[in-house]
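Form 7-S
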Amino acid sequence: MLFTWDTQNLCIIFRQWRITGLVSLLFSLLAVAALTAGYELVRQLSRRYERRCAAATATTQNSKGLPKRDDDDDNNENTTTTMQEPGKLVKAAFYAVQVFYSFFIMLLFMTYNGWIMLSVAAGAFVGYLVWGGGSGADKSVACH
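Output:
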């Protein structure tokens, strides 16, 4: 495969998703940008859920009825594990969706078409502006 700007008969991931003219190109570029921006939404939802879990864990009470502190070593019972178990399943689901989504975006990029690549970058830009919040850009350049 070679890098190209040519869009004539361009196939994007699926046989059915084919560029046949200017209109299909424009709709496809918008779809790719929207898909890429949506990845940032999934990341934001995952971060929010993890913050909620962390807040719930921080307010866990120890056996004396006092708020749990980081330096409480006398508590042999691991209360955070039982509190996090339900959240761990949801976190794993978020992670799996992010991995699938990121590999899908990678496949879009691997069409080696300049227009699709620019659309991926534009979608990432818009997604980060809309849903990036005050978060850092960590993990954003990795496939997962």
